Amino acid sequence: MKLQILITQYNETEDIIRGMLTSISLQRGVDLKKDVEVIIANDGSDVKLSKEFLDSFSFPIKYLLCEHSGLPGCRAKLFDASTADYVMFCDADDEFFSHLGLHTIMRYIDRGFDAFASEFYEELCRDGKTVYNVRRNDCIFVHGKVYRRQYLIENNIVWHPELKCHQDSCFNILAQKSTKNFVYCKTPFYLWRWREGSICRADPYHIPKTYKDLIDSNDMLVRDFLARNDRRNAILYANASLYAAYYNLNGSIWQDLECVKHRYETEVRIKQFYNKYIALIASISEPDREFVIKSMRVQAESDGLVMERFSFPDWIRHIKNL
């Protein structure tokens, strides 16, 4: 088996997951019965997929019923159940929008890689209209990523169950930066679909509410790099985490009264992170610092954040004095 597509399912109904499975059944230029298998794990939900529904698709599907453990825990169980050469983690409410998506992946699999990332489309709803944004050079989300299973095992690259939110970036960055055999595909074929019930996109305050969890994820990433004696990447991402937080907290949404508590909790967590890695952060070379600042600023500008309501040195002094 060349590729297994690993899908978590919690409250997604058959109508919701049908789009993903149908998009797989429409793939061309690939032997779906021989080279591809789908594994779906129900994460302790009462919403279960029927055998009749799963049997209606012409490719092999395994359905696991698991105790509830959250998204990273469920993905870990899916990975433990996998046996294919390569694995791809997908969300139940997404889909392949190109009929040649799996064909594209198989072409790269035939050449061999440890980590693969493609550009993908993000579906958004703005002012009642559906728009599509191309995500390029993205490590934040698991969409459009494929990994060689044995490479993940040999390098102990795992989903950390203790990370309840923003766990994708920790997994993706570690997996992509721990190998020289990484390939990037500029052909988008995966669609991160908009769903009204999706908390992370429907709630305008999702980022302020969960940014301290993102710091937890970044902390885990730095620890993972240090455990691998990869000090340079640990330094880079410790600094990147700090500058990304600075630019994010310059955003106008953090000025809302609804975010006063979230901002305080976030900055307290940032202070803990800063104090923990203060020597590591200070050891960055000047060229690397300039690279990190430029990268984080470009990302912030692309996200539409308002720049420099306060300076970085002023913000650091504020963090230290909390």
Write the layout of secondary structure elements.
Elements: E1 3-9, H1 14-25, E2 36-43, H2 51-55, E3 61-66, H3 70-81, E4 86-91, E5 95-96, H4 101-111, E6 115-118, E7 120-126, E8 129-135, E9 145-148, H5 149-154, H6 167-177, E10 182-185, E11 190-192, H7 199-202, H8 206-227, H9 231-249, H10 260-276, H11 278-282, H12 286-302, H13 312-320
Parallel strand pairs: 1-2, 1-4, 2-3, 6-10, 7-11
Antiparallel strand pairs: 4-9, 5-11, 6-9, 7-8
Helix pairs in contact: 6-8, 8-9, 8-10, 9-12
Protein model, in words:
This protein is of the alpha/beta class. It has 2 domains: 3-202, Alpha-Beta Complex (Spore Coat Polysaccharide Biosynthesis Protein SpsA, Chain A); 206-320, no CATH class. The chain has 13 helices and 11 strands. It has a 7-stranded mixed beta sheet with strand order 3-2-1-4-9-6-10, sandwiched between helices. Strands 5-11-7-8 form a 4-stranded mixed beta sheet. β2 (36-43), α2 and β3 form a beta-alpha-beta unit. The protein is globular, with a radius of gyration of 20 Å. It starts with a strand and ends with a helix.
